[in-house]
Structure formats: C-alpha cells, structure tokens
Write a structure and sequence with these properties.
The chain is of the alpha+beta class. It contains three helices and four strands; from the N terminus they run E-E-E-E-H-H-H. Bound molecules: zinc ion.
C-alpha cells in the first residue's frame, strides 16, 4: 500500500543509502526487487549480486564506486 504523500523507502544494498521506491532505479534478482540510488550502484549489483546479498557485506559508497570502476575497466580490455 502506498498512500498519497507517503514514500516507500528501501535501502540500496550496494551503498546503504535510503532510496524512494517510486523514483529509484531497480532490478529484479531471484524474484526480489532491489532499489538503487543510481545507475552505478545498480550496475555494481547486477555484476555481482551475490556479493551485495552476502550478510558479511558492509554497504558503502566507496565499495560501490570501486566495483563500478573495476567493471568498466574490465570491459575496456
Ligand atoms: Zn547506491
């Protein structure tokens, strides 16, 4: 249920930021929908969802940026 004026908040599994479901980028993995603050985080998640779903993973902006950069570099080779 999403009442008018109410935002359903979710947590970006990559960086740990709170994101608004109505506006956030999302992707579906194993039947569950995940929301992201931006394309970088979504991309990082799509590359290695198992890493971000691991309970030992600590969400951080730096980790997400690093993964995204590594993915970009890998593709250029
Ligand atoms: Zn994020």
């Amino acid at each position: 249920m999403n009442l008018e004026g109410m935002h359903v908040m979710n947590t970006d599994p990559v960086c740990g930021m709170a994101v608004d479901e109505a506006r956030a980028l999302h992707c579906t993995h194993a039947g569950k929908t995940y929301y992201f603050c931006g394309a970088g985080c979504r991309h990082a998640f799509e590359e290695r969802p198992e890493k971000y779903l691991d309970p030992s993973y600590e969400p951080s902006m730096l980790g997400a940026a690093f993964d995204w950069l590594r993915a970009v570099l890998r593709r250029r080779r």
